[in-house]
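Supplementary Methods S3. Complex input for the magnesium ion-bound model.
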Amino acid sequence: MTDPLLEIRDLHASVDGTEILHGLSLTINAGEVHAIMGTNGSGKSTLTKVIAGHPDYEVTGGDVLFKGRSILQDEPEQRACAGIFLAFQYPVEVPGVSNLYFLRSALNAQRKSRGEAELSGAEFLALVKEKAKLVDIDQGLLNRSVNEGFSGGEKKRNEIFQLAMLAPTLAILDETDSGLDIDALKTVAHGVNSLRSPERAFLLVTHYQRLLNYIEPDFVHVLLDGRVVKSGGKQLALELEDKGYAWIEEEAAGSGSISVA
Amino acid sequence: MPDTNESIQALAQQEYKHGWVSHVDADQLPPGLHEDIVRAISAKKHEPEWLTEWRLRAYRHWLTMREPEWQKPKYPKIDYQGIIYYSAPKKKPEVSSLDEVDPELLETFEKLGISLDEQKRLSGVAVDAVFDSVSVKTTFREELSKQGIIFCSFSEAVTDHPELVKKYLGSVVPYTDNYFATLNSAVFSDGSFCYIPPGVRCPMELSTYFRINSAGTGQFERTLLIADEGAYVSYLEGCTAPQRDENQLHAAVVELVALKGAHIKYSTVQNWYPGDKDGKGGVYNFVTKRGMANENAKISWTQVETGSAITWKYPSCVLKGDNSVGEFYSVALTRDRQMADTGTKMIHIGKNTRSTIVSKGISAGHADQTYRGLVKIMKGATGARNYSVCDSLLIGGTCGAHTTPYIESANPTAVVEHEASTSKISDDQIFFLRQRGLSEEDAVSMIVNGFCKDVLSELPMEFAVEAQKLLGVKLEGAVG
Ligand SMILES: Nc1ncnc2c1ncn2[C@@H]1O[C@H](COP(=O)(O)OP(=O)(O)O)[C@@H](O)[C@H]1O
Ligand SMILES: [Mg+2]
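Predicted complex, serialized as structure tokens:
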């Protein structure tokens, strides 16, 4: 048996002294697509940032293993170079820095850390052309400053473009679907689907079931108050859509964590 | 290209040897400042009577002046009687290989991507000239002189083109201008001179770098650039490599004269030694730079200031002619104990004169910086326009940034716009870039370079790339 790609064991994490994650466990194998659902404030974004190593979040208990090795001591850039990618819920702007210049620097930094040669200008541009087509991103956006003046949808598309360019082994998408119209949602889904592979896993954080119509998850987990309280197959997402979150809250209040999977 | 520079440098050193041996008895005057010293400097340089008199007038005026205290950076009192005002350019202590050079310096060179040969030149390692250095020098000068362009040291200009020097010296920065400019006028050692004839577009970027005789003249440098009617010149001053210097006080004067329809673009990258972490030993850079724009002329100042313990500098434009244009693009980066008080003055005299000011200040550590700008619209400057934007970026919580824009308008038709902002690098920006694989230092450097883009893009291409790297190197260890 090979190690799971990502293994989260009884994770406790706080921000500014307040514990947000209260013992969260989750295992993701290569090739799988997992969806995390949950109400606002349940800790979804916190989880993604803790995995990626945001310095504001302090891990107070448990462990996060990537390919069998604890990454909690690793810097964010080391985790990125190891193959963890986070598409942000609220992508930031970096004024004056061209999207392509930034991406080339990032890609080459990652390649360098893996002992690979840096891409030449021509190789890089060829890759840009291919991936831009995949996520149907406007060429004009590529030469503009990172996310500066982008619409909400353009920012999200740009995140997926970066995902395609950097080709991570674990891609975490934090509410990439929110704020997208149906056409944009389809393109994003198409991009993600074509990036699915036996070596790569996805962790999709979403508030709505909608995205899961286009990207079919292998597993769905419900996050409540910093814990996974229910896991299941894709039908769980439909059930949530139908019945809302209240029944899960009641169940969780009654019996603690439930696992169906 | 590095080979070319080395050859020129080698030649320059040779010339000094010859020059000084034949004309000069002692290569150094005793410390102190009085009329005899001023006369002696002039005599040693074989200057004509009028120039000696000009220096003396400046000296006498200087005696009546008081050292300014209004600028923000405070510094220990300078002992003007303790300074040696004339000294034949000293040869840098020469070493035979890079192994003998300060490893810290070499590391910085490497980070800046400076070639090995160039490293040797900058750190004073003896370099054999590969080319026939005489022919290199000749080709360069010949190409320029074919078009009537004069580009030489100030001293050479005094000898070879006295009529031009006499006509324009002090025409933009009079010897009475300010304490340090006046001191410079009395005791200036050498500098650059450049004249572009009417209608000529100078075919290459002129750089102090190429200029022969540049070594050892840093302290009281004097530069005079004249673009005759319809001429164009782009001039580069400075070097991105760290420049150490034994002189603490630098009081240079730069005068630009843009005649009718001429365009002068003057770019500076200043990376003088800033001193140690506590600011000890750094250079005080008190410079007066000013350009005079005649009708339809344009003067653009672009500067990247990263060095010196104290920088005190206001490249300015006197927009005398109708429709003349002044531009000022500035990046100032201060860290540790560095202090910078910099900005510009745009004096609108002619009708429909326009000026643009883009100032980007970055402070880290305990550094402190002030933008001080004056936009002055004179009574006759009907239709004058100014647009200013001053942005400050703070890294960490212990540094300071101050913006002091002065606007004086005596003409109601003038339009003056000023925008200012202060921002901090956000943790989320840094985290975003690190999440994509960049180190924290690279992330900060990228954000800072983005912040400065509007200024860096004004620099000639190669210089811009170097300046970008320089900002990255200067920021190392400044974060966190
Ligand atoms: N910097 C912070 N300081 C204090 N509380 C925070 C901070 N950031 C997030 N939280 C709290 O943590 C909880 C989880 O937030 P988040 O992970 O963003 O939830 P979700 O993404 O599921 O909507 C919320 O109650 C939120 O208010
Ligand atoms: Mg969230």
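The two ends of chain B are 39 Å apart (CA to CA). Confidence is low (pLDDT under 50) at residues 1-26, 125-137, 210-217 of chain B.
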